[in-house]
Design goal:
- Six copies of one chain form a homohexamer.
- By secondary structure, the first copy, chain A, is an all-alpha fold.
- Chain A is 64% helix and 0% strand.
- Chain A contains nine helices and no strands.
- In chain A, helix 4 crosses helix 9.
- The two termini of chain A are 27 Å apart.
- The mean pLDDT of chain A is 97.
- At the E-F interface, helix 3 and helix 9 of E face helix 3 and helix 9 of F.
């Protein structure tokens, strides 16, 4: 028997509203499995819809910050928040998007020692400040980002991702959301 | 001249997508003014839509936890995160919903000393743990909530609100979102 | 029946030593009510006398730091210490002294976002460091204050107020000192 | 040349108001030297008077908590606040009052490992909570103290001393108040 | 060109004292590569010898705590200390010793959510307390361990491993010790 | 009867392996008493040997950092870790090696206020960062040390001592290792 994927009730696919069912089937089609976050959050369809709309707006956005870099933000801040689901699932996505089997573990444990560029380090410094002490963010933080070539929209992106996954980390920890076994070895 | 309401560009109402414009006009109609969070977040229409859909799913939900109690969660956790916008705006809403001019300031500064019931204190203890150290939430926290009569859906509600406003607090701090002057005296 | 204003015994006015009774009557005359701190601390007459002598020496002092600015220090540091009595009572005094209905809530929640001058922000940065990590205060802090035009006596004033209210915050939290209802709306 | 005893101006005895001069001469008579706190704080006569009146009200008080135990509170909380003057000066007083050359260093570094009674440990647990997180003091803390035989007046004493020296620690750190050389070896 | 494995000079095998060279060759023989910790620490032969003697005394010891469990302690505490080398290298060893490809990532990010027994969770609770706040370890911690069947020698083992790797984590962070690429995929 | 020197079993000298017995007798010969750390750690002979080999490699090393300065590192970091044994025992050694009866207490409580040189303060700033947040050590820390004349080997020494005593502090706190009475007054 498999361990539970959430401390809360998990709906069956067939019982879900059609739009959510279709979204999940599409992910399954693409990934070969259904990441547990979809099933755990489907317990609350309205929140599910908002969560993934928000997620996609931030993570699928085109722009100077690459998709791999967006995943770096997720992985670094999620380990600071001790979120097992997010570090393991987004670690896999980061490895795949960066085509680099080492980067996710490096960024998770201590991004200051990771094989990243100074620009990426500045991005993660800011993301971590938003995640851990947003009240103290000030002009000097924005100036540092600008000095690394980030424009205003990039700054919003970084902050948005750090803030959104701060929420996601808390939900995953409260629900004891379990990462799928598949994630651990993807992209290695 | 008025001080800026966000460090980022703020769109004019007339330039917004119609659904967002309508939503904002409806709020203005009801409240007599447009809370700045609507204008500041409208800079990113997709994120705006997801943000308010999520907000409404959590804050407009019917259930044993009253709307005033939901606002207590917002106010207590937002002060812990030093979020000026959320404490001041939701403090106003809390005063109105609780029909109590004192409760918001009490809950913001130290909810342990507020005029609330033991059940409400247990709710806020849990919300603060989700907000500040969600990684350590465990069975004993759920047992304490259950002993105060909260069921599983209530627990999700509390956690969801604390997590969502953790995101909101970070966005407001990064954007230097300014509370409308109207909020300070509402409901006093 | 009114909720208690202190976890400890609260004397009646008629039973108090004459000097303390006179002091309290004078405050009542001036303010229209007796702030609970006077009654709660009167449980210990000698400590009462020392407390208010110290308070007045710091808060009634003439000098380049205005009375409103002194109250800003109280409000900002008291919220960091989660002291309900001090934030609410001195928030009222700050509103009155600054003739500004918004300033107290802004300074309480996150002074970095408040409508204050750079000189006032430097004053509060220092006050918060004294309040939260005085062991690390060093020459660079004094140099920053000097660069904003504060002289040595001003520096002592700021530190003295932050230190004194650090004590006051702890006393108020331990005694569960209750702010008078009047304070919440004063000066709004 | 001797190192300065304060970062701020230190008055000469002959220039002080007579009451302060007499108080200092009396201490010198009794101790054989003038503890630097008297000279450093004499820079502000009104604050000096209030400070020592408060100090004496708490530290010279008769009651079930002995003078040595009061000094234990000072020493433990002052090391938590990294206050060199208070740990060294009150460490000396503690050794003398307890007639125990070991107790001060033990209590300063980690009172949990000191040669003290369970009742004294409960007293210091409470004092440290008042010193470091007074906002969270609640009924359970008072119940623990009561179980060790402390009555309400004792609880006020412990809290008052922890709060007063929290102020004193901050003043000493900001002024870089230097402990007299005499203190280091007294009572050993 | 490979990135450096240490911020400090790294000796060549041929220049090392014979005992150290032999130890390293033996590891290479067994593992198929030389873990970088051996090369980085060989910069200081005497410290190298003491380090590995200590390591082996704790990690190769027979006893009720299995080798896999010892590695759990290393992985959990090393992530709390943000030590990239130790989490990644000992994560590999943990996977191998536990014959479980998932356990290392789970334990690293949040051991409270890992697939471990209650006894193992108690072991890690204690290890984390030793790692993060050893000053507060007290009788109740030992009683909890005893209730899970740990005897006195086991308690020493857990504490010793947490303390030793606390040192190791600091050395690895200061030297910017780089985990070998081989570790990331071992045992998956 | 004497209080126990360790929570764990303490072997008798006659039952110890000969090399350990000889080492202890040599210390006794030189110091006039056996520091309790030797007896407490002798419970585990292999760990004892590694511990003291490591200790000597770091503390007996010749170099630009004097033996007194090495002890300063121990005393400052050990008080941050609330380790009674290390502060008291190494405080004594520091007084003796520095031929200064005041220095140990100053450095223990707040080294920023101690009678030390700017170079020594930079050394302790770095040692404290290694001790308390090694994950954040970066190039700027090494540059600061270099500006004070420390070379690469010195930097390793400082870090090594801070890391080693971080381990030692944890072992002493877990074992409740008791400082010998002799240490308190040595060198005063």
């Amino acid at each position: 028997m498999n361990p539970p994927i959430s401390r809360f009730p998990v709906p069956e696919l067939k019982d879900l509203p059609e739009d959510i069912r279709q979204r999940i089937l599409a992910v399954q089609e693409k990934s070969g499995f259904v990441p547990n976050v979809f099933l755990a959050l489907a317990h609350r369809p309205d929140e599910f819809r908002a969560f993934f709309a928000y997620h996609d707006a931030l993570m699928e956005k085109k722009g100077p910050i690459t998709k791999a870099e967006r995943e770096m933000i997720v992985v670094a801040t999620s380990n600071a928040n001790q979120c097992q689901y997010c570090v393991i699932a987004h670690g896999a996505i980061l490895r795949i998007r960066a085509k680099n089997p080492l980067i996710a573990d490096q960024v998770a444990v201590n991004y200051r020692k990771a094989d990243i560029t100074p620009r990426q380090k500045a991005m993660l410094d800011f993301a971590m400040k938003v995640s851990q002490q947003a009240h103290a963010v000030d002009d000097s933080d924005f100036a540092t980002l600008a000095a690394h070539g980030f424009d205003q929209e990039d700054m919003w992106d970084i902050a948005g991702i750090a803030a959104f996954f701060g929420m996601s980390n808390r939900l995953a920890n409260v629900t004891s959301m379990r990462p799928n076994d598949e994630f651990y070895s993807l992209g290695r």
